[in-house]
Amino acid sequence: MADSNAFTTLCEELESSSTLDRLEARGTVRLALKQAGLEAGSVTASQLAVVVDKILPGELKTRGIDSADSICAQLSTSLKAMPDEEGGESPEAVFKRLGG
Hints:
Layout lengths: L4 H13 L4 H15 L8 H10 L1 H7 L5 H14 L9 H9 L1
Helix pairs in contact: 1-2, 1-5, 3-5, 4-5
């Protein structure tokens, strides 16, 4: 499953506003999503905003990013301005479609 646009945008912004490279930024966000029980392919901008507010600052501090709180505040503002989109079909929709 392809990553959601919100996930991709967040990772790009994190990479440009921190010392993390592309793989580190994406991996860090994926770990934060895992803690929240979310997946990169279906996460919405509003869900990511909560993850950025609650989980991501700790993940960044663990990786030695000193300005984690200010980076996360900036990322959260950006995500809250982004429209939510459907990240893919829900499991219920897939089974309904397959069931006929």
